[in-house]
Amino acid sequence: MALGTMLLFGVAATAGAWAIWADLPPPLSPEQSLLSSPWPAAPWVRIYVAGVPYTTELATHPRIVAQADEHAGVHTYEVWQSVRGPHAHLFIDQLHAEAHVGGGPTRLWVEFRGEEAERILEVLETIEDYPCKDRYRLWPGPNSNGFAQWVLDEADIEHRLPRSSFGAGFGCR
Predict the structure, then answer these.
(1) How far apart are CA 101 and CA 128, in angstroms?
(2) Given this model, what pLDDT does residue 12 score?
(3) With the CA atoms of 37, 106, 163 and 25 taken in that order, what torsion angle do they form, in degrees rounded to the nearest 10?
(4) What letter does residue 95 receive in the DSSP assignment?
(5) What span, in angstroms and rounded, lies between the C-alpha atoms of 100 and 130?
(6) Which of 1, 122, 152, 165 is 20 to 30 A (C-alpha) from 129?
(7) Residue 151 pLDDT greater than 80, yes or no
(8) InterPro entries, per this entry (predicted)?
(9) What is the per-residue burial (b if ≥16 Cβ within 10 Å, else e) of 40-51?
(10) What is the percent of the chain where pLDDT is above 70?
């Protein structure tokens, strides 16, 4: 009986993990990388996800990367559990756009251009107003996934982060 229960739990857990993994795009190709290919025509916003340590990509950390125009630099925006700097848990330009966070490869989740990118950039211009910048909780949130989803929601972008983005549904108002 116990063996059957363990097998059933193992199959269910494996199926759940597969559903999460199947939702993730492949690791960055040279054509997608900002390091080895020309940058997209600005304005653009990309959201990258990278596996969180010890989770084998069952949980991911998002990083918003943006360039407002061809004369502007590329900037990164993300939330971390540690508190440093002028914006508490909110970090701007802490890591390179495609840096790993220790739990798997960095993946390009989505790219926005044109009017959608401009709406996101408007939110990023006032990112210090993020209402949960002084709070961080791994589960249920607010966390890095909730931050990225908040930016999309504030920009009125109907796009959801991958299933591995635990805490993305945490409402931070």
Answers:
(1) 23
(2) 38
(3) 40
(4) S
(5) 24
(6) 165
(7) yes
(8) DUF3750 (IPR022224)
(9) eebbbbbbbbbb
(10) 71
